[in-house]
Amino acid sequence: MTAPAVVPLPSLVERSVGLSSVPSIAAPPAGGWLALPVLMPGTFLIVLDFFVVNVTIPAMQGTWART
Fold this sequence. Notes:
single chain
C-alpha cells in the first residue's frame, strides 16, 4: 500500500493573487449589494443618534444649573 500524494498548500502570495491550483471555497461575489443591508441601518443609527443628542443637550442644560 502506498501513501497518498501530499499536495502542498499555496503560499500567502499565491492565495492573495489567486494563483493557487487549489479550488477556492469562497462565496461568489454578490456585486456589492450584500453590503447595503448592513450599511443602511448603520447610517440611519448615526443620523438618529446625532439628532437625539442635539435635542437632549439643551434639555439637560435647562434642567441642570449651567456653570
